[in-house]
Amino acid sequence: MIKTLPTSLFTSPVQQALSKRYRYAREQRQMGRVAATAYVILVVLAYSVLRLEGPAWRALRQKYAPWFAHIEQRPYKPADGLRYGLQASWLLIRRPIPLQDEGYLYRTLRAGGRKLARGRLWVHHALGTKTTPLFKNRFFSQDNQGAKTTPNAQSETKSASQIIFWLLGGSALFALSLLLITQPFGLAAQFVFVFLLWSAAMIIRRVPGRFSSLLLIVLSLTVSGRYIWWRYTSTLNWADSKDAMFGLILLSAETYSWIVLVLGYIQTAWPLRRPVASLPADTSLWPTVDLMIPTYNEDLSVVKPTVYAALGMDWPKDKLRIHLLDDGRRELFRDFAEEVGINYIIRPDGRHAKAGNLNHALTKTDGDLVAIFDCDHIPSRSFLQLTVGWFLKDEKLALVQTPHHFFSPDPFERNLGHFGKQPNENTLFYGLIQDGNDLWNAAFFCGSCAVLRREAVESIGGFAVETVTEDAHTALRLHRKGYNSAYLRIPMAAGLATESLSAHIGQRIRWARGMVQIFRTDNPLFGKGLTIFQRLCYLNAMVHFLAGIPRVIYLTAPLAFLLFHSYIIYAPALVIMLYVLPHMIHANLTNSIMQGAYRRTFWGEVYETVLSWYIARPTAVALLAPNKGTFNVTAKGGLIKEGYFDWKIATPYVVLALLNLLGFAFGIWRLIFGPNDEVITVVVTMLWVVYNLVILGGAVAVAAEARQTRHSHRVPAALPVDVRGADGRVYGATLSDYSESGVGLIRPTPLSE
Q: Which of 173, 322, 386, 601 is a Cys-bridge partner for 342, taking CB atoms 3.0 to 4.6 Å apart?
């Protein structure tokens, strides 16, 4: 038996180590000469390429036996190398590997960035130009950077060297992306490509931190870009007019969805999570605030809690003025304002609805800042303490927006019975999208729970009145004027959600119409004053509401094949699956990682489906005639005394569900009597129909209105309290909920006599 390995090429210590490895392979692992020699060669290659002496590899060597138990319990065989590779790949995908240091990926990318910077210095040296910062730092002061801003330094940011660098880098990335997206693959190559990207995504998704989300976005854009390229170049049957017509209709919807996907990734790639800015200790430096509460037809019982909360705000009384703006001109409200000591403002006419009401109030007040709350939004005591600091830090700041939080269930939560169990429909916007907008200085005004600088609002002529969404339009004009905005993702006010599904849909119709009106009359893609990313963020906010028609197309598209035998995607079923499934999987995986805490994928589909039919017509009209449409006030504080099914709202979705059931029945008929070579295509299309039916079923279920008989909603709580009885005894209890009219107590026990 050979005990040593000829290693004259190596030094003595290395030769001894390799001989030891060889003897181990021959004696303990019972390998043959060829296998043992190959094993030693692999060890040499591994140590040459990998840092096997590092802590991560040492930990792997200590644990690898249990992971490869079916290989370790017997002598090596020639195919064991392949077995190790396949098993390792599977473990990387399926087995979560805990990271001892969550900053590892960040440090790795940072090191790569240093190498890129050194290469960039070499490029600049070769070009004979000066280097400039890659990014303009807008999040840290120059004091933190240890440098002073000079006119020369500012001019360098637009130097020729920076332009050359970005042109070269951007061109290289664009060329690489274009190659990956447009390169034609056969079936086997496409399978390997999508499998590798899926495997990479499965590994990356387990890595904590934002960089992993960025990598998932890159993978998703690559797969989705390849899919949309394939759709345009290989899947339209121009030889058949019916196929071409239905195919183009579906492709237009898919193109819209792809654009929204890309814009959404840009918008939410890196949420800013802005901290609170502290106020100076000297309260004489604090600005004066006009707090405005506009109202129109709401009950006084809805308005009172907001006014009382405003009166209790933690702000110097001589610097806070509270105004009730009553467009309903009601004596009861005037008397209430006089009773509590706030200003009561009315105007001679009701032109321009809420925007006109606010503009009239601006002429009657003179505070430095203007805080606005809808009459049902109850602010916290600390609202101004937490929001005003940023106005003192940034003289160009025009707006600080905070989330709209609701203490009552919306129609989805109440009718489906998952209030508090699933994220609210608004959570995605106020939890992620606005925070992402803030990175690009594109957070916009949402009509309430916000503070604005009076000087900035007056410089644009007051609140915008040309559209029915005065809030977003006002923010757009402020940004065009060069002002900044800020978003604090801290709920500091709570309001009432819409009481019924019809009221909820009516509110969303107004939002949709207004955003499309802005798109037509003040398109963010054109005009001066906006950065490219501000334009893209506003664009996504507007085109998002055009989703009604594409959603209806998706709900009816499979019927084109099942009922009319039209090939809407002119390709074999297997090829369709190799392109469609990766596109859907990567998009859903990436969005679930980024949006998981703010919206569940299934319920997001239900939300969008419920709204789709009703926003389709108003948005189409607004595109063609942007001046049409009126401001309708959303009803709050209503009651639903008896549960009922809203057939008027549900009818479109019942009809769509019946059409899909008809298509499913035709699919069964095609499976039995149709040609054998279409079986897979029919099955795939029927699965699409099943998915549509599940989503439509959820949409129909929301139309079953549940009872809502509370005038004042209970707010859940878990607070220890002491209760003193009429007899003087004190009881300890837990406060489970509270409202204006009462509280809920759990297990009171006597504490004293």
A: 322
Q: CA dist 694 to 596, 606, 687, Å?
A: 21, 9, 11
CA triplet 603, 607, 608: central angle to 5 degrees?
Answer: 120
Q: Is 493 helix (H, G, I), strand (E, B) or coil?
A: strand
pTM: 0.76
Side by side, which strands form the sheet with 289-295?
343-345, 320-326, 289-295, 369-372, 450-453, 397-401, 484-487
Active-site amino acid positions: 327, 471
Amino acid identity of residue 521, one-letter, is: T
Q: What is the pLDDT of residues 659-677, one digit of tens each?
A: 999 999 999 999 998 888 8
Averaged pLDDT for residues 228-243: 93
Which phi and psi (to 5°) does residue 244 adopt?
A: -65, -40
Which structure tokens are listed for 481? 């004027």
Most distant pair of Cα atoms in the chain: their distance: 108
Residue 434's H or E segment, with its range, is helix 434-439
pLDDT in tens, 107-166: 555 565 555 555 555 544 544 444 444 334 433 333 333 334 444 444 444 455 556 666
- 289-295 vs 369-372, strand pairing mode: parallel
Return all residues near 330 (Cβ < 8 A) that are at least 6 apart. Answer: none
Q: Which CATH superfamily is domain 283-497 in?
A: Spore Coat Polysaccharide Biosynthesis Protein SpsA; Chain A (3.90.550.10)
Helices (H), 522-598: 532-543, 548-564, 573-595
**Banded pLDDT at 596 (limits 50, 70, 90):** confident
Instruction: Please answer whether residues 235 and 247 qualify as being in contact, where contact means their C-beta atoms are separated by less than 8 angstroms.
Output: yes
Q: Give the Cα separation of 457 and 365 in Å (integer).
A: 13
What residue ranges do the domains of the chain occupy?
Answer: 12-94, 114-135+159-182, 283-497, 715-752
Evaluate whether 460 touches 478 at the Cβ level (below 8 Å).
Answer: yes
CA 436 – CA 432 distance, rounded (Å)? 6
